[in-house]
Amino acid sequence: MQTFDFEVNDDGRLVIARRFAPVVVTTCYGSERYFECLRLFLASLVKYGRYNGDVAVFSSKPPNETLRWIPESLQDRCLCLPISSPPLFQRYDLSALRQYQPVLYLDCDIIVDADVQDCLLRVAASRGLCVTNERYLYPELCNVEIKYVQDHRRIGNWFGLELIRLDPDCSTEFLPVANSGIIGFSDHDLAQTVGAMVRRLHGSRIADQYEWAGDQPFFNYVLTKTKAVDLESLGDTCSFSGMSDQQPSAKGFMHFVWARGDTKLTAMRNYSDILSRTPVRQTPRQRLSE
Questions:
Q1: Which of 39, 184, 187, 270 is the S-S candidate for 104 at Cβ 3.0 to 4.6 Å?
Q2: What integer pLDDT is reported at residue 5 of this predicted model?
């Protein structure tokens, strides 16, 4: 159930507004190069995302060590929380953050390259789970009903295609092609329910067949089955890359999902350097009451 602020005006009518107390959430674990990615991500969130709200970092390091990687301007409004096991699935349990609304989860291998305020407002107004997607990269996966999809590039199982095909209820739906690196929501109960389904699927006997693909097959299956997905609110905000010389998109987010290891860190550093040399065009912000 979403939380509303309200008042009764002089005419005896209810005036209702959704509470706007945002938090940006991420996870970080593994070697120190991923914590350097975290530092770059958070620096871009402040500088280019113009974000001045709270941040929550679920980390494999103790809070005092995690704070070493947090930009100084964020440290007094950063929650450092212990990460659960398996770490990849922490994004599906954000129950510790129920005091916030909306919640925007971002992977730490993302560079924010535009103001995030509009994204937060879209998530606040949505009743579903807002996700970015890779539909523009794989149109053949989503331009027909799931039962008719021809997966010639053999990429569909990254998004749970065959898993979803096994469920007759989903045969006439369209594949979300959702990327789980960005998830936004205001309805905590919905997010918890979807997250519990994803975690339960990961713990089932079919999980071994999709171990190579991580969480996304299960996430796309749950989104398809529940119809809880909002593909529009954040649909045009993210570009996906693995290149170290990527030019600025100014969409909102550059997700270096295809880079690995040191290549990922190098690509993020290079993109940050390119952004620092690119004139920033700041547009007027939408008022929260609009």
A1: 184
A2: 63
Structure tokens at 149: 């999809």
DSSP string, 53-65: SEEEEEESS-HHH
| pLDDT, tens digit, 9 for 90 and up, residues 49-66 | 999 999 999 999 999 999
Q: What is the pTM of this model?
A: 0.90
Q: Tell me which residue of 107, 113, 105 sits closest to 48, measured CA to CA.
A: 113
Contacts of range 144-147, beta carbons closer than 8 Å, 24 or more positions apart:
144/174, 145/171, 145/172, 145/173, 145/174, 146/170, 146/171, 146/172, 146/173, 146/174, 146/175, 146/224, 147/171, 147/172
Q: Which residue bears the tokens 């994204």?
A: 119
DSSP state, residue 211: G
Low-confidence ranges of the chain (pLDDT < 70): 1-6, 16-18, 244, 280-290
Beta-carbon-side half-sphere exposure of residue 12 (alpha carbons within 13 Å): 0
Phi, psi of 74 (to 5 degrees): -105, -15
Sign of the CA dihedral with 132 first, then 133, 136, and 142 last: negative
Q: Report the distance separating Cα 139 and Cα 48, nearest Å.
A: 30
> Do 194 and 188 touch, CB atoms closer than 8 A?
no
Give the per-residue pLDDT at 125: 95
The answer to whether 233 and 177 have CB atoms below 8 angstroms apart is no
Q: What is the dihedral of CA 69, 57, 114, 111, to 10 degrees?
A: 60
- Phi and psi, residue 33, nearest 5°: -65, -30
Those residues whose C-beta lies under 8 Å from the C-beta of residue 259, and which sit 6 or more positions away, are 109, 241, 242, 243, 244, 266, 267, 268
**pLDDT above 70 coverage of the chain, percent:** 92
